[in-house]
């Protein structure tokens, strides 16, 4: 056998050379940095939409979607900070941190879908289509 039979596979992973808490913290920090980058991009996009004014066809829709995305990103950011501060090697924390991680994953998926809609509705006057005259 690759490990003693009295250890479960999860206990074996945590006792290996890989420091699971350090790995989890680095992964969470990377998630947080990506969340900040998307947050700043959405704020910039919101500023552009506001500058274009209410005459823009999807003005209300895009502003609502960006606002929704920003709100989700704030919640995800708070959860990421909570997860990063937890110690995954302590068994007492594992269930709670796993649940928070699952909730954060769902939030990030919702942020992704919301930003797809923002991109679709935001194409009319920004980016490539702004320079093309049909």
Automatic annotation (TrEMBL):
<feature type="transmembrane region" description="Helical">
    <location>
        <begin position="56"/>
        <end position="83"/>
    </location>
</feature>
<keyword id="KW-0130">Cell adhesion</keyword>
<dbReference type="GO" id="GO:0042246">
    <property type="term" value="P:tissue regeneration"/>
</dbReference>
<dbReference type="Pfam" id="PF04923">
    <property type="entry name" value="Ninjurin"/>
</dbReference>
<dbReference type="GO" id="GO:0007155">
    <property type="term" value="P:cell adhesion"/>
</dbReference>
<protein>
    <submittedName>
        <fullName>Ninjurin 2</fullName>
    </submittedName>
</protein>
<keyword id="KW-0812">Transmembrane</keyword>
<dbReference type="InterPro" id="IPR007007">
    <property type="entry name" value="Ninjurin"/>
</dbReference>
<keyword id="KW-1133">Transmembrane helix</keyword>
<dbReference type="GO" id="GO:0016020">
    <property type="term" value="C:membrane"/>
</dbReference>
<comment type="similarity">
    <text>Belongs to the ninjurin family.</text>
</comment>
<feature type="transmembrane region" description="Helical">
    <location>
        <begin position="103"/>
        <end position="123"/>
    </location>
</feature>
<keyword id="KW-0472">Membrane</keyword>
């Amino acid at each position: 056998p690759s490990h003693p039979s009295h250890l479960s596979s999860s206990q074996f992973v945590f006792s290996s050379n890989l420091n699971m808490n350090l790995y989890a913290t680095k992964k969470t920090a990377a998630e947080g940095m990506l969340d900040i980058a998307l947050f700043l991009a959405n704020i910039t996009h919101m500023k552009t939409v506001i500058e274009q004014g209410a005459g823009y066809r999807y003005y209300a829709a895009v502003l609502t979607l960006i606002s929704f995305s920003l709100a989700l990103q704030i919640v995800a950011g708070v959860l990421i900070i909570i997860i990063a501060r937890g110690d995954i090697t302590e068994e007492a924390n594992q269930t709670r941190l796993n649940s928070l991680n699952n909730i954060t994953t769902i939030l990030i998926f919702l942020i992704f879908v919301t930003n797809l809609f923002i991109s679709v509705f935001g194409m009319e006057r920004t980016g490539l289509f702004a320079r093309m005259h049909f």
